[in-house]
């Protein structure tokens, strides 16, 4: 039984490269320029993709076939921290890239700002959460008296954690 590596063809893997926080885009841009230069010269490159997840600070993810190619494209980049790149499974990266629904982060008592609908711009306190229907019951804080209002969970932005 012949495996892929013995046939000369390696499978692409994803590696996390540690960078200076806030400089992820700079690192990705430099790597991209190096890959483009290689392609312009007619050389082959095994870098398939460069990924910068929005919620992960201090890391750039590269999909490469050859680890030596990874070391070559990140060498001498000022904002890349020394150390070995970490191999990441596709499933782990998918979890990082998949956005969480806003309602998953909300609880009763949290203060939110309503971002859509007729109450846009108002602050409210959550009195009930129905995660199955993606609905929130809130009381508007600026109102003279409290009337429970039911709004979709994606109409709010969390302001502060409730007591």
TrEMBL record:
Keywords from the named record: Ribonucleoprotein, Ribosomal protein, Transcription, Transcription regulation
Domain NusG-like N-terminal: 11-100
Signal peptide range in chain numbering: none
GO molecular function: translation elongation factor activity
Domain of life: Archaea
One GO process term, biological-process aspect: DNA-templated transcription elongation
InterPro entries in the record: KOW (IPR005824), NGN-domain (IPR005100), NGN-like_dom (IPR006645), NGN_dom_sf (IPR036735), Rib_uL2_dom2 (IPR014722), Spt5_arc (IPR011590), Translation_prot_SH3-like_sf (IPR008991)
Pfam families: KOW, Spt5-NGN
One Gene Ontology CC term in the entry: ribosome
Domain KOW: 105-132
NCBIfam families: KOW_elon_Spt5
Function in brief: Stimulates transcription elongation.
Family: Belongs to the archaeal Spt5 family.
The protein's assembly and partners: Heterodimer composed of Spt4 and Spt5. Interacts with RNA polymerase (RNAP).
Protein name per UniProt: Transcription elongation factor Spt5
Organism for this UniProt entry: Desulfurococcus mucosus (strain ATCC 35584 / DSM 2162 / JCM 9187 / O7/1)
């Amino acid at each position: 039984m012949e495996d892929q590596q013995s046939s000369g063809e390696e499978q692409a893997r994803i590696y996390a490269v540690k960078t200076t926080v806030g400089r992820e885009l700079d690192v990705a841009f430099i790597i991209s320029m190096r890959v483009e230069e290689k392609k312009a010269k007619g050389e082959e490159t095994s870098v398939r993709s460069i990924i910068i997840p929005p919620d992960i600070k201090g890391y750039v993810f590269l999909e490469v076939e050859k680890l030596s190619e990874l070391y070559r494209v990140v060498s001498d980049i000022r904002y890349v921290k020394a150390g070995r790149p970490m191999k990441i499974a596709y499933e782990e990266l998918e979890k990082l890239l998949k956005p969480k629904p806003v309602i998953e982060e909300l609880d009763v008592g949290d203060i939110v700002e309503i971002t859509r609908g007729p109450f846009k711009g108002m602050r409210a306190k959550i009195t009930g959460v129905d995660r199955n229907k993606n609905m929130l019951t809130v009381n508007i804080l600026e109102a003279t008296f409290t009337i429970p209002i039911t709004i979709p969970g994606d109409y709010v932005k969390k302001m502060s954690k409730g007591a």
